[in-house]
Amino acid sequence: MAIHELTNNPNLSGQVRLIDNITYAAVDGEPIKMTILAPWTQRFPQKYTTTPRPLIVFVQGSSWRLPHLGEEIPQLVQFVKKGYVVATVQHRNSLDGHPFPAFLQDVKTAIRFLRAHAQKYAIDPDRVALWGTSSGANAAMLAGLTGDDPAYETADYADQSDRVNAVISCFAPMDVEDTFAQSQNVPGSDLLQFCLFGSDTSKWNQVKAEMSPLKHVQSGKQYPAFLLFHGDADQIVPYHQMEEMYNALTKVGAKVEAYRVKGANHERDFWSQAIYDTVAEFLAPIEHPTVKDN
């Protein structure tokens, strides 16, 4: 039997490195983590020079609890192979005594951390996209609409910007009051509201409005480009919220694209390769024309 032969891969082309358990901030001694997907060449900086790549920051939906970092990693690997660095980020858990705007502050801190460490992780700090699902998409939309707003900044990496070039939203709560009205009979909904909005119920409407991306859209502001997806059979966040957000952004002249996913519920049957391909096409303007790791 003949011994077969394959050619080696001296440039490590197509190989992806997972850098796990990165602490990007700590609040009251509580570490907040992220995971980074980077080209394999980034592991060997003495031998390889990795061209800085555009960054995708991904926030997994979690009902504003602690996001599970690994949920979308198998699908996000394809974006590293397309030429990106991808970071999936956690934020503080509202059920552990961290009401709004803790989760938003954390996502913004993660963006600033990644800019501060751009050289270490082969990131181009001028090309940053923010992508979220469900409550993570709520955070992404809020961050995109409030770039460098001091109301939501922490002292961490204060010399860096939290502005982004693009935002991708998948089935985001755009109107938080409407979202909780939809889910009022879901077990745990009341507890979650107390944890998110605080114990003083007289202030809930004010907090819900501040936490609603729809309420942040203003004319005369410079916004990133937005890509919105929502299933029209969503049983958690009503589909009409995406249409309202699309109309609001269009009205103020923001760059926005929106996709109705026919028959899709929340998460579950929403996902397909068509979603990822649409995201890749939308993000193409922030890609490097060619990415060479040598």
Q: Could you describe the 3D structure shown?
A:
By secondary structure, the chain is α/β, with parallel strands linked by helices. It contains eight helices and eight strands, in the order βββαβαβαβαααβαβα. It has helices spanning 73-81, 102-116, 135-145, 176-182, 189-197, 204-210, 240-251, 273-283; strands spanning 16-27, 30-39, 53-59, 85-89, 123-133, 166-170, 225-231, 256-261. Strands 1-2-4-3-5-6-7-8 form an eight-stranded mixed β-sheet, with helices on both faces. Helix 7 (240-251) links the parallel strand 7 (225-231) and strand 8 (256-261). Helix 2 packs across helix 3 (135-145). It is globular and about 75 Å long.
**Assembly state of the chains shown:** single chain
Order of helices and strands: EEEHEHEHEHHHEHEH
Give the uncertain stretches in residue-range form: 288-294
In helices, the fraction of residues equals 25-40%
Mean pLDDT: 94
| Percent of residues in β-strands | 15-25%
Strand order of the largest sheet: 1-2-4-3-5-6-7-8
Radius of gyration: 20 Å
- The helix-and-strand class reads alpha/beta
Give a quick summary of the entry.
This protein has 294 residues and is α/β, with parallel strands linked by helices. The protein contains eight helices and eight strands; from the N terminus they run E-E-E-H-E-H-E-H-E-H-H-H-E-H-E-H.
